Amino acid sequence: MNVVRLTVAQALVRYLAALRTDNGEPLFGGVFAIFGHGNVAGMGEALYRHRETLPTYRAHNEQAMAHSAIAYAKAHMRRRMMAVTTSIGPGATNLVTAAALAHVNRLPVLLLPGDIFVSRAPDPVLQQVEDSQDGGASANDALKAVSRYFDRIVHPAQLLSALPRAIRVLTDAASCGPVTLALPQDVQAMAYDYPASFFEPRTIEFHAPAALPREIERAAAMLRDSREPFIVSGGGVLYGLASDALRDFAHKHGMPVAETQAGKGALAWDDALNVGGIGVTGSSSANELAHASDCVLAVGTRLQDFTTGSNTLFTEARLVAINANSFDALKQNAAAIEADARLALDALSQALGDWRASPQWTTRAHRAANDWRETVAHVTNTPVPDGRLPREADVIGAVQRSDDASPAGDIVVCAAGTLPADLQKLWRTSAPGGYHVEYGYSCMGYEIAGGVGVKLARPEREVIVIVGDGSYLMMNSELATSVMLGAKLIVVLLDNRGYGCINRLQQACGGAPFNNLLDDCKQGSLGAPRIDFAMHARSMGALAEHVANIDELEAAMKRARAADRSYLISIDTDPARTTEEGGWWWEVAVPEVSDRDAVMSARADYERAVKARNGIHD
């Protein structure tokens, strides 16, 4: 047997560099790295050796670079991905939030944190977490709960089994998510005689299960018994490359389609059966139809509370769920089809034959879809009232109007606050991937880092990051990374002087405005700072300007589109006004006792809503 003598780090990097997708592209688009004493010697040397075939990207924050890697995989519909390497200690634990984000969103990322010495000879090393009751404890243990597969490489031969297992999880439709291979720094440097065949180029097959005939027949029978069926399209439609199958299925059988945050873009925004977003941040048309439906076909969705209206939206319907992951397919007591979205939709359509929904239902869906498109046009083109600051809808309208040629060709990136709600309602996209909003974990700080990953994946597209001042202040350093990499972003920053979304929720629950908007926070003698976001962006190498109104924003967007580097535009917005159209109830627990009348009134409303969900009426 031919062997190659390599260190663990060298073997790992060489293995990753040899993997290919079915169209011949490298499976791994690169490795994001911030070096420290736990990875600079081992992984650093190995990455340098393979820097031409497996590029290394330097970032400014470990959580942010993991966000970039996750966004890269999402933009590639999970068909390509990235790895991330950090030192031990804070570098590794900075990955925990990003790993949770990838876990919740079912997105692949390979995490390669450095770890403590297996030999224990120099214990305790710098940044080592010690446990008086567990000598083998490591800070990396914090990643176990948020990894779909975790392994600590304590011997060089372990890679021969750990790496294939890791790749299978990363490329499996059912188990996809973050993988952590913790790399003790002494083991990284150990040499071993590896079989040369282990490093031969190989094509990775993405595993997606086909539907069982009995599951298809049961679902087909349920749909045939319905007259007013309804489709909820989730992220699994996009990741399963099932957009065409979904469109064909919906039109053949006359069924309206609503999209989750992760599934938005599966159908073109102006498709006759696309009734808009679903749930708490969805359209009024979609929610009205969903609530009236007698059978819901949920395709590739986790059915989280924003999709189901905290389990109040589908109360009159039986549920059929298509999902590669059995855990998700069985939610809501659904009739499960544990399968890939495209394969299942094709099989289900064949089983249904010429069956169609009630003609009246399909006609109602066409009318509802058109009504919502008219609502979107009205909301995004209504002038800002005199004396008022613009709101999110005004900004979204201006951004999309700023490109007369193909506004639906942009990729919008966002993650948290009011913006995802308004974007799900109002953003128009004509192709899969044009809507990139991380709302499974709703992680503030994802936006700019995610934008970098999207731009690396889709350099030919205009990537527009829309972000609030709160998220920007949490994590903005990857704007400098975007400039360094030539990964141009347009960042539209809405400054409402604090956390406007949570401030409104606080008051809706009866609370007093407190600790959310800067003016309502505890302050020293100098008061809350006035932040010049344009100046801050320019300090990191981007172009930037502040605009005073929507007309100026449209003009600035044209300059940003023509720019040769990342460009930030800031605009002051109203923290109190938001889009009233659309939406649905969301359960947020209100205190049962309080000395505030407003809280007790909100509690009474909450209790009535919970009773209604449970079928109890006063």
Give a topology summary:
Elements: E1 3-7, H1 8-18, E2 19-20, E3 28-33, H2 42-49, E4 56-58, H3 62-75, E5 81-86, H4 90-93, H5 95-105, E6 109-115, E7 149-152, H6 159-170, E8 178-184, H7 185-188, E9 191-195, E10 202-203, H8 213-224, E11 229-233, H9 235-239, H10 243-253, E12 257-259, E13 274-277, H11 284-292, E14 295-299, H12 305-308, E15 318-323, H13 326-329, E16 335-338, H14 341-352, H15 359-381, H16 392-401, E17 411-414, H17 419-426, E18 435-437, H18 446-457, E19 463-468, H19 469-474, H20 478-485, E20 490-495, H21 500-508, H22 533-539, E21 543-547, H23 550-562, E22 567-572, H24 597-613
Helix pairs in contact: 1-2, 3-5, 3-18, 8-14, 10-14, 11-15, 15-16, 16-17, 16-23
Question: How would you describe what is shown here?
Answer:
There is one protein chain. The chain is of the alpha/beta class and 618 residues long. It has 4 domains: 3-203, Rossmann fold; 213-371, 3-Layer(aba) Sandwich (Rossmann fold); 389-572, Rossmann fold (3-Layer(aba) Sandwich); 588-618, no CATH class. Strand 15, helix 13 (326-329) and strand 16 form a beta-alpha-beta unit. Helix 1 packs parallel to helix 2, helix 10 runs parallel beside helix 14 and helix 16 (392-401) crosses helix 17. Keywords: Thiamine pyrophosphate. Residues 216-348 form the Thiamine pyrophosphate enzyme central domain. Pfam families: TPP_enzyme_C, TPP_enzyme_M, TPP_enzyme_N. Belongs to the TPP enzyme family.
